[in-house]
Amino acid sequence: MHPKVILQTNFPGLKFLKRGKVRDIYEVGEYLLIVSTDRISAFDVIMNQGIPYKGMILTKISEFWFRFVEDIIPNHLITTNVDEFPFECKPYADALRGRSMLVKKTEVIPIESVVRGYITGSGMADYKVTGSICGIKLPEGLVESEKLSEPIFTPATKEELGSHDQNISEDEARKIAGDEVINFVKEKTIAVYKKAYEYALRKGIIIADTKMEFGKYNDEIILIDELLTPDSSRFWPADKYQKGRVQESFDKQFLRNYLISINFNKQPPAPDLPEEIIMKTSEKYLEALEKLTGQKI
Fold it and tell me: Taking the model in full, what pTM does it have?
């Protein structure tokens, strides 16, 4: 038996701010409360069913990485311990436990900071047509899942729910956020990726790419949202890696592959997922958590 899947939160005593693909966000005094549900999206479409344990896994993995890279850049996390949350959260402690983060309120920088260490996904599609990714010229002859000589910063727009984030060039990102901000964010994104990549590789996971988000807090740029989770990254088993083909994964690529196999048109409404796909996806997320952090749910 798996636990009750949480698809939506309802905390009438708290000020609801917004609902993302996975997270519900509340305002609690001077803080934000980010609650990770068990919703899962693919191709920017939210599935009808949730993935058991998913919200807890995302919270634990993000917390682990935020602590791990604090020496590179500070972040928005205050605590994940519900007993330390403000008083008004107490009536909902059981529902919040294990799946929520109390965080600083920031002014969000409106760019998805994507870093790629390998060529795959939309990057591969771009490269096949242009020989570049987001305007960065790459060597000829690269094959699916090939490791790049150096990680590259390939920003994307930050779109509202229901719209696809669009890959953009670094120059376009500078027009949106400014030179100084992009210089800083680019440097920190690559530094965080490199440190995490080396650690994960020792644990048997290749982080092929990931996206990060940043915000300003007291005039300082810090990491926000989630960090290096199976939702925001491609995690591949290192022992099965082989360039020239699509890789197995510990992330929702497994779900995407299933949807491609049934010719899903990448538009709502989402199809119902078979129990086998739901449980297999849950297992992959649990395995990523245990391999990276040594923790279990």
Answer: 0.95
